[in-house]
Specification:
With 191 residues, the protein is of the alpha/beta class. Helix content is 36%, strand content 19%. The strands form four sheets. Strands 5-6-7 form a three-stranded parallel beta sheet. The protein has a two-stranded antiparallel sheet with strand order 1-2. The protein is globular, with a radius of gyration of 17 Å.
């Protein structure tokens, strides 16, 4: 769940919040909490087996929707209103995509940007947690096709990638998004 300031509370983030001291969402700043993960030589003993990471501004220093929008003021306004709790995410999600109408080529560029802007310690942190027996999931309202290469580079299985799939027509133009996805609704990451 996200409060009015865009901070995550409860839900999937709860697991990580107990696992780490410091910021759950900035791998370059993570320090393992002694109560949750005790060092065993080079190996960690984890208190929680499931670890959930957000992607945008967490594992990668980018907001995918902002990259696709290219500074479009209406998209920026809608995003800020949703992050401040002024408008429900389910009211904003589709509107932003209809304004941007990203094609497959745009999504490929975004995928490359996620890779380039992955935080320096993201791979190390994910590998260390995995070596300790954690099952890593990525949970994002970002675009599945753009986030998948990042997940693959981190060794995250498809079944552990929770993102929103876009649909394209035969020409590679935007058609729609998966409207059944709980990630496009307010509180969807807490489900």
């Amino acid at each position: 769940r996200v409060d009015g300031r865009g901070r995550h509370r409860g839900g999937a983030a709860r697991f990580g919040a107990r696992l780490f001291s410091g910021s759950l969402f900035r791998p370059d700043q993570i320090r393992l909490n002694r109560a949750a993960a005790a060092p065993l030589g080079d190996r960690l003993k984890l208190r929680y087996r499931l670890v959930f990471f957000r992607v945008d501004s967490t594992l990668a220093d980018i907001q995918g929707i902002d990259f696709l929008a290219g500074g479009n003021e209406e998209v920026v306004r809608l995003t800020e209103a949703a992050m401040n709790g002024e408008i429900a995410l389910d009211e904003v999600y589709g509107k932003r995509l209809e304004i941007i109408r990203p094609g497959l080529a745009d999504i490929e560029r975004l995928a490359g940007e996620y890779q380039k802007r992955m935080l320096p310690d993201a791979e190390r942190v994910v590998a260390r947690l995995r070596d300790a027996g954690a099952i890593i999931h990525l949970v994002t309202a970002g675009i599945e096709q753009a986030v998948r290469p990042l997940a693959e580079s981190l060794g995250i299985r498809d079944a552990a990638l929770h993102a929103v799939r876009l649909n394209f027509n035969a020409d590679g133009n935007y058609a729609d998004y998966d409207r059944r996805s709980f990630l496009t609704r307010s509180g969807g990451k807490a489900v």
